[in-house]
Specification:
alpha/beta; Hypothetical upf0131 protein ytfp; 2 domains; eight-stranded parallel β-sheet; disordered N terminus; binds zinc ion
Length: 657
């Protein structure tokens, strides 16, 4: 074994730098409370590398604190003062309070030193790689950096380590001849801080691939969308690949590499690459919910080694499953040292949504990067897809999205995957076909059944309803919808009035912000009259709309409302879907037939009506934006005049149930 190593070492003779320093472990929660970004992360990496004999094959360097003068170009005076002093005695009584005012930040006596060491260490390896003393390097640092903004610590990040090092090489060490740097941010979260720092700078091509879900995934804003391409001379030098859903894995990342990053890197021709190497997109990560394998990371890295003569600096960002984190870093070290990926394989088929995102990014950036202008062959993008996971912007979920969230679903299963040896991560062809068949069966079956979806709220305005089919948002919506898998428009639209009560309840939604949203009393009453706009769609589309109205994420490997449910609802009038219990619109109500096609709507269940009556859940008038949308629906649908529509809403908002 040793002979093999020394042989390969003499053959390649790569000088790979490595930095680790136990002092960066002193940054931890002040009360000892568990936190995903904890010292054991870098300890686990170091232990794994040591046990595999990696440090002996590397140039191990000492961590260095960054000097303030090199931090100032990137961070504001106030921010630097805060981070420099926050761990000193004078802040003992105020430290927790200051941290609590920041977004997802804790601070203790060790924070300042760790922040300076993290930034300084990335600078140190970057300088040595730029000089050519090292071929490449990995700085195992914490706290991470890519969320830290010019004037603000956030998302577990104090200083933006990668931005500080990039600025240092370009502006403080011009004699080293590094004029163009490619930053690849493969952390599962968007590198918001880094993006802003080089927004107008064409010397830095910032590329980030991350979960976005139309702005609902941390940091939960639009900064990470693919339309954010940089500005002025920096236009085109900022590339975001925003995932529409979680569970992206090797095939999704590699498709992005092959069809966006690598072609652009060829044209940009960087002098050096810095990787914001978060491993929270790794399989089993409790925050990321994606499934990149160590093998996947090694291929992603290997593909980047072709550029900048292999001058690659890796700086640790996130990564919260210790096994997965350590195994992934180890896989990358093997590539840096040997220039060959570790053994393994991954399934070949990206999600359908992955192709959609790739095409959108290519189109957005084709004016700047002609290599992206060609349309991808249909044969490629329509190849078999894995089961689609729809992540919706549900009206039901009123929670704020503060801080990276821990996902609970299927974590156990994912962790099991991590614990398997790499060779076992191979997915055989048969199991693919099985998945693909199951996936296609229910969708193609239900795509042949037509239903009327009876809308009674903002969906009565067609452009708003189409967001649930085609994706996107209309004016007044604070976040876009993901859309349905089948994006074809409704085959027919008609209006009706039905003997049911319309009312407005709850006081906040993710889509519309403060204000109530429309509900429909599931029981009929001849005294009542509600307008409904009927859209003739497929039962498959109805399922995707049900999902978007109720929960934020669900694996659509089986339908929520199938043929059996359809048959039973036509007998029982109303059926409450167990699987969507958390949502507000999981009660599917049958309203008879039109042209012999069943009419379905979705609303709250009868027990919720009691809560609305008792005041346990508030009745609440809608926000202006929501009301406007509803009025537009009624007016454009020629049901009511604007005044009548306003009065209709007014009555539904105030009359007790
Ligand atoms: Zn992250």
């Amino acid at each position: 074994m040793e002979e093999v190593i020394s042989e390969s070492k003499s053959k390649t003779d790569r000088r790979v730098g490595l930095i680790y320093d136990e002092r960066m472990c002193r940054h931890c929660t002040p009360d000892g409370e568990h936190h995903p970004e904890n010292p054991n992360r870098i300890r686990a990496i170091w232990k794994k590398l040591e046990s595999a004999g990696i440090p002996q094959r590397c140039v191990v360097l000492s961590a260095k604190e960054a000097e303030d003068k090199y931090i100032h170009p990137v961070h504001s005076k106030n921010h630097v003062n805060l981070i420099r002093n926050i761990s000193s005695k004078q802040f003992d009584s105020r430290r927790n309070k200051i941290a609590s005012k920041l977004n997802s930040i804790y601070l203790n006596e060790g924070s300042s030193e760790a922040a300076y060491l993290a930034a300084g260490s990335v600078m140190e390896v970057a300088e040595r790689v730029a000089k050519g003393e090292l071929n490449s390097a990995f700085a195992i640092v914490r706290p991470p950096g890519h969320h830290a903004e010019q004037d603000e610590a956030m998302g577990f990040c104090l200083y933006n380590n990668v931005a500080i090092a990039t600025n240092f090489i370009l502006n403080e060490r011009p004699e080293l001849g590094i004029n163009k740097i490619l930053i690849v941010d493969w952390d599962v979260h968007h590198g918001n801080g880094t993006q802003k720092m080089f927004w107008k700078d064409p010397r830095v091509l910032f590329f980030s691939v991350h979960r976005h879900e139309f702005g609902s995934f941390y940091p939960a804003n639009d900064d990470g969308f693919y339309t954010k391409i940089g500005e002025g001379p920096g236009a085109g030098y900022n590339i975001n690949v925003p995932w529409e859903n979680g569970r992206c894995g090797d095939p999704d990342y590699l498709a992005v590499w092959d069809h966006i990053l690598i072609p652009v890197a060829k044209d940009f021709n960087p002098d050096m690459i810095i990787i914001s190497a978060g491993f929270d997109a790794a399989v089993g990560d409790p925050l990321g919910g994606c499934c990149v394998s160590p093998y996947g990371y090694s291929i992603m890295l290997k593909k980047l080694m072709e550029f900048a003569q292999g001058k690659i600096v890796m700086a640790l960002e996130g990564g919260y499953n210790l096994d997965s984190l350590a195994n992934s870093v180890f896989a990358c070290m093997e590539v840096l040292l040997e220039d060959k990926p570790i053994i393994g394989s991954s399934e070949p088929y990206p999600f359908e949504s992955t192709w959609r995102v790739i095409q959108a990014v290519r189109q957005e950036l084709s004016a700047f990067w002609p290599t992206l202008a060609d349309k991808l062959p249909k044969k490629l993008t329509s190849s078999k897809a894995r089961p689609y996971i729809l992540i919706s912007s549900s009206d039901s979920d009123g929670e704020n999205n503060e801080g990276p969230h821990i996902l609970s679903e299927n974590i156990e299963a994912a962790v099991q995957n991590v614990l398997q040896p790499f060779s076992e991560l191979k997915v055989d062809e048969d199991s693919h076909d099985q998945v693909a068949t199951v996936f296609n069966t229910w969708r193609s079956e239900l795509s042949k059944i037509e239903v009327w979806y009876a809308s009674f709220g903002s969906n009565m305005w067609k452009p708003r309803f189409l967001c649930y089919v085609e994706g996107g948002q209309v004016e007044g919506m604070q976040k876009p919808c993901s859309g349905s898998v089948d994006r074809s428009p409704p085959r027919e639209i008609l209006w009706k009035s039905v003997p049911h009560r319309l009312f407005f309840g709850r006081d906040h939604t993710r889509t519309w912000g403060p204000g109530g949203v429309a509900f429909f009393h599931p029981e009929s009453n001849t005294q009542d009259k509600a307008y409904v706009c009927l859209y003739r769609i497929t039962l498959e589309q109805f399922n995707d709309i049900l999902l978007q109205e109720n929960v934020t994420s669900y694996d659509m490997s089986s339908p929520l409302f199938d043929l059996t449910a359809l048959n039973s609802v036509t007998n029982k009038q109303s059926i409450s879907l167990e699987v969507l219990k958390r949502g507000w619109y999981h009660n599917v109500v049958y309203l008879g037939k039109e042209h012999d096609v069943p009419i379905l709507t979705m609303t709250c269940q009868l027990s919720d009506i009691e809560s609305f009556k008792s005041g346990k859940v508030p009745l609440h008038p809608p926000s202006k934006e929501y009301a406007n949308t509803l009025v537009k629906g009624l007016v454009e649908g020629k049901q009511l005049s604007e005044e009548e529509a306003m009065a209709y809403i007014q009555e539904a908002s105030t009359k007790p149930l």
